[in-house]
Specification:
Largest sheet: 7 strands, mixed
Number of helices: 5
Shape: globular
Order of helices and strands: EHEEHEHEHEEH
Strand content: 15-25%
Helix content: 25-40%
Radius of gyration: 16 Å
Structural class: alpha/beta
Strand order of the largest sheet: 1-7-6-3-4-5-2
């Protein structure tokens, strides 16, 4: 699959002024932290912006239900949700359709149920939130630290261990103890494939 790491590592000041650049010290997403154009929220209460989740580590997953690459990442998201959901990780799926029929809320609701997705899912039928967060491909995962700053962005499948490591670091940064630093994604539950 397509795997691209999009991190802004540009530094306008000289190294002497700032010292070593912390890889976790990335600029906030250009579009702000709001979810414009979302018409419905599934599996929980609506969220107006990431600011409501201050202090939490937030993983946003831009996906669409006919995208095989998106579906193949769900076991990894489920593993992270199971392992870190009670430690402060919040996963938000933003359903941003590729095709017109995917805009149907009924179709999205059915897909969320069929795929067994337990986390919050926003319906973004016109891809307005997609644009605000500068998503360009399915799937795109963006991790935000407890301070609302973007920590890691993965386009396409893969980089699961790297993402999980940044999830762990971000949780520790937020003051949460993560005693088990093995990776939940080494052996994800792949039963989802049986239904495809």
């Amino acid at each position: 699959g397509l795997i691209t790491l999009l991190e802004d590592t540009s530094d306008q000041s000289s190294p002497g002024e700032r010292g070593a650049v912390n890889p976790l010290d990335l600029e906030p997403t250009a579009g702000g932290h709001e979810f414009p154009g979302v018409t419905a929220w599934l599996n929980g209460d609506p969220i107006a912006s990431l600011d409501e989740l201050e202090g939490k580590v937030v993983l946003i997953d831009f996906w669409t239900y006919t995208c095989v690459n998106c579906i193949r990442t769900i076991p990894f998201l489920r593993a992270w949700n199971d392992k870190y959901g009670d430690k402060g990780l919040v996963i938000i799926g933003i359903h941003s359709p590729e095709f017109t029929f995917e805009k149907s809320l009924d179709n999205v609701r059915t897909a969320v149920e069929d795929l067994g997705i337990p986390w919050l899912v926003a319906n973004d039928p016109e891809r307005t939130t997609w644009d605000a967060f500068r998503a360009r491909a399915w799937p795109t995962k963006i991790l935000f630290g407890f301070d609302g700053r973007e920590r890691k962005r993965v386009v396409g499948e893969g980089q699961y261990e790297e993402m999980e490591q940044i999830i762990q670091l971000s949780l520790v940064e937020s003051g949460v103890e993560v005693p088990d630093t093995t990776f939940a994604t080494e052996n994800p539950d792949l039963e989802i494939y049986d239904s495809l």
